[in-house]
Amino acid sequence: MTPPDLAPATPQLPSDVLHAHCTAMPHVTYDNVFGPQTTCYRVGGKIFLMLGHDADPQYATFSYDPEESLVLRATYPSVVPGYYANKRHCNTVYFDGRIEPAETLDWISESYNIVFAKLPRKIRDQLAG
């Protein structure tokens, strides 16, 4: 994996801020099923974010609407098709300082919402109840 050319312009997104953001959402769990270099955040057992700790800059892969993904990739050089993920439904964002942290957190929240909405109704009902 080769990160895009680096040109930091804004503060990078610290992994502790990202972790706090993810774990503040309802019913989120996390694990390191792929090894210590990757933290997976899940809702209802489904991954909505994979945080890679093994590169500089760090990166995260998240689910997103396929049409909106094309817009993100065309707009931001730090957003590329999902690394080791479905290239149509996932994006990887590099925390290289070119994207405002708040914007990245919004994308992660949207990923959570997309994955939650696709859970079977029985699981959504269990989580809500």
Question: What report would you give on this structure?
Answer:
It is a single chain. The protein is an alpha+beta fold and 129 residues long. It is built from four helices and six strands. The protein has a six-stranded antiparallel beta sheet with strand order 1-2-3-4-6-5, covered by helices on one side. A hairpin with a 6-residue loop joins strand 3 and strand 4. The longest helix has 18 residues. The chain is globular, with a radius of gyration of 14 Å.
Labels describing this entry:
single chain; six-stranded antiparallel β-sheet; alpha+beta; 35% helix; globular
Helix-strand layout with pairing:
Layout: H1 15-23, E1 28-31, E2 38-43, E3 46-52, E4 59-63, H2 66-75, E5 79-81, E6 90-94, H3 101-118, H4 121-128
Antiparallel strand pairs: 1-2, 2-3, 3-4, 4-6, 5-6
Q: What spatial form do the alpha-carbon principal axes imply? A: globular
The total count of strands amounts to 6
Q: What is the first-to-last residue Cα distance?
A: 41 Å
Content of β-strand:
15-25%
Which ranges are low-confidence, i.e. pLDDT below 50, for 5 or more consecutive residues?
A: none
Order of helix and strand elements from N to C terminus: HEEEEHEEHH
Q: How many H/I helical runs? A: 4
Q: What Rg, in angstroms, do the CA atoms define?
A: 14 Å
The residue-averaged pLDDT reads 89
Helix content: 25-40%
Strand order of the largest sheet: 1-2-3-4-6-5
**Could you say which structural class the secondary elements and strand pairing correspond to?**
alpha+beta
Largest sheet: 6 strands, antiparallel
